[in-house]
Amino acid sequence: GSVLLVSPWYKESLGGVAVVADRLLRLLTAAGVDSSLLVIDGTPESDDERDSRVWYRHVPPSAFHCLRCRTIASTLVRGSLIFWQLARYITAKQVQTILVIFPTDASWLFRLLRLLPGTRLIVSCHGNDITKYHERSALERRGIRGIFTAADAIVVCADHLAEMTEAEFERFAV
């Protein structure tokens, strides 16, 4: 099966998470794994730099950060449309693994997509997603916690992040 990488950003000038997403895409492709990258916040820098394996969809950040009618309506309408687009893509490409790099409040959608038969969810943490978790609103934390609890595995890039993640999300041995 194939792998769907999910990143909030994909511009090398952003560094960090974008570089990780790019390297993972290149390494998986070089290893013969059918892989693609979904960027959930951002647009390509130019049409010339478009890669057929990289595509952009704005996933609404959910109603978890602000409970207003407009936010809830946007989440329901745009979220439903994106959900069905991604569900069709995952089914057509026989995606077996969704790897969410740097979970944000827009990651809620992948908790739902995890329910598709034969799909695994991996969450990859890289720093501020864990160290600044408690600075988010209670509703945002609840939404992000949902993706962690739905995950089949959590990957971290440093021992101190593993300790913080284990403390926050006790059911995981990171």
In short:
The chain has 174 residues and is an alpha/beta fold. Helix content is 41%, strand content 18%.
List keywords for this structure.
single chain; 174 residues; alpha/beta; 6-stranded parallel beta sheet; 6 helices; 41% helix; globular
Q: What features would you describe in this structure?
A:
With 174 residues, this protein is α/β, with parallel strands linked by helices. It is 41% helix and 18% strand. It has helices at residues 16-30, 69-92, 108-113, 128-131, 138-150, 159-168, and strands spanning 2-7, 35-39, 54-56, 95-101, 120-125, 153-156. A 6-stranded parallel beta sheet has the order 3-2-1-4-5-6, sandwiched between helices. Helix 3 (108-113) links the parallel strand 4 (95-101) and strand 5. The two termini are 25 Å apart.
Dominant shape: globular
How many distinct beta strands? 6
Strand order of the largest sheet: 3-2-1-4-5-6
**Any low-confidence stretches, pLDDT <50, length ≥5?**
none
Topology overview:
Elements: E1 2-7, H1 16-30, E2 35-39, E3 54-56, H2 69-92, E4 95-101, H3 108-113, E5 120-125, H4 128-131, H5 138-150, E6 153-156, H6 159-168
Parallel strand pairs: 1-2, 1-4, 2-3, 4-5, 5-6
